[in-house]
From TrEMBL:
Coiled coil, from the record: none
InterPro entries according to UniProt: ConA-like_dom_sf, Galectin-like, Galectin_CRD
Gene responsible for this protein: LOC106805291
PANTHER family tied to this protein: GALECTIN
Protein name as annotated: Galectin
Gene3D superfamilies hit by this protein: 2.60.120.200
Organism taxonomic ancestry: Eukaryota, Metazoa, Ecdysozoa, Scalidophora, Priapulida
Length: 174
């Protein structure tokens, strides 16, 4: 389904995808993986939400170093199953920004999901199971982010980093 969505976007001139190297990895949660976050990269996380043992559900961070109280988090996605919400936010200089909560709750406990985070010059586009879920505007410099942190109540099956896609402008009609 995801590949069909991306092919459709490419066909209408919104997105061009070229084959490029894919880095695949997985780890035991919580974990931190080294990724140099850059415009033009896409990160695919495949996993299964587990019964939540607490209010925080699971989260995925793109951050500028190992976890500590001063780590800047350029992108924070927190899926809270008990509340049926997904929060997007950033923590810069130790301070959390304003939470974004719209979009509903696309995850089903016990059912595998595929989350795609695409990094554009001005935003992250988040897809869940091949459908655009939300856009999140950058609040920090993307080039400073070098770690993906994953934690919480989900089974991590796979993480992929893919390169070589670009944003295109549609061809104007005459």
């Amino acid at each position: 389904m995801l590949s069909r969505t991306l092919l459709l976007l490419a066909a209408i001139g919104v997105l061009a995808v070229a084959a490029g190297p894919t880095n695949r990895t997985t780890c035991e949660l919580p974990c931190e993986m080294d990724f140099d976050v850059q415009v033009g990269k896409a990160y695919t996380i495949t996993g299964v939400p587990l019964p939540s043992t607490g209010p925080d559900g699971f989260f995925i961070n793109l951050q500028d170093g190992p976890r500590n109280s001063t780590t800047n988090i350029g992108f924070h996605l927190n899926a809270r199953g008990q509340e049926s919400i997904v929060i997007r936010n950033s923590r810069i200089g130790g301070e959390w920004g304003k939470e974004e909560r719209g979009g509903g709750y696309p995850f089903v406990e016990g059912q595998e999901f595929q989350l795609l985070i695409m990094v554009f010059t001005d935003r992250y586009s988040i897809y869940v199971d091949g459908r655009l879920y939300a856009d999140y505007m950058h609040r920090s410099f993307v080039c400073l982010l070098n770690i993906m942190r994953l934690a919480g109540d989900f089974q991590l099956n796979d993480v992929q980093e893919k390169t070589h896609w670009t944003r295109c402008t549609p061809v104007p009609t005459l």
